[in-house]
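Final report, Chapter 2: Outcomes

The project's central promise was a pipeline that accepts a single protein chain and returns its three-dimensional structure in a standardized token representation, suitable for archiving and comparison. That pipeline is now operational. To close this chapter, we reproduce one record exactly as it appears in the project archive, with the input sequence first and the structure output second.
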Amino acid sequence: MRLYVNIDHVATVRQARGTDEPDPVRAAVLAELGGADGITVHLREDRRHIQDRDVRLLMETARTAVNLELAAASDVLALAEEWRPHQATLVPERREEVTTEGGLTFTGEGMRGSLAEAVRRLKDAGIRTSLFIDPDPESVRASLELGADAIELHTGEYANARGAERHEQLGRLRRAAALGRSLGMAVHAGHGLTYENVTPLAAVEEIEELNIGHSIVSRAMFTGMERAVHDMAQIIRRARR
């Protein structure tokens, strides 16, 4: 199980004042010291948090892998081809949303066409490509048809659910993960995961990578980034014992 730490919210705090601190690139260094296997950043079209400068510096300084999240139809696609991160994850993007609210939709030839073109361009640049999807069979199979190397299952509904509904959402994620693995794709997961809800998901054998950001950054405000990442890494690795 790999832990990729999303540092977007460090940049969110910086952009609130339009200054140069806290620096998300420094946060990435501490996350790696704490045991992160990779760093995730979402370079949005409106540049609301992560900036081009952040990604450029991460590409030069990160000791682990960089996972760049981006929208398929955006100027960031050309930047990804130039920077060549280890991995790019195509995600849906809407200006009015606070954070990503769900997986990619595959309805409509225009959408499928833009996704197929983005996957082709990223793979031609030698970038491992993942699609952020809802955990349903149709989306898993569509990702395979588009040529993705991996899928990242949206865990937001699981994270927001309680009681029996959470158990149902966990089952849905397990089935999607099993299908993705059986089709030969790598399976990742993320969104809304916390220190309290991550263990059942981390125990799913077919999932090889978790992307976690907000909960770690929140904890880091009290414990420091290195300790916050270390604690999360310990939890998800104990889930496999």
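Archive annotation: The chain has eleven helices and eight strands.
This record, like all others produced under the grant, will remain available to the consortium after the project formally closes.
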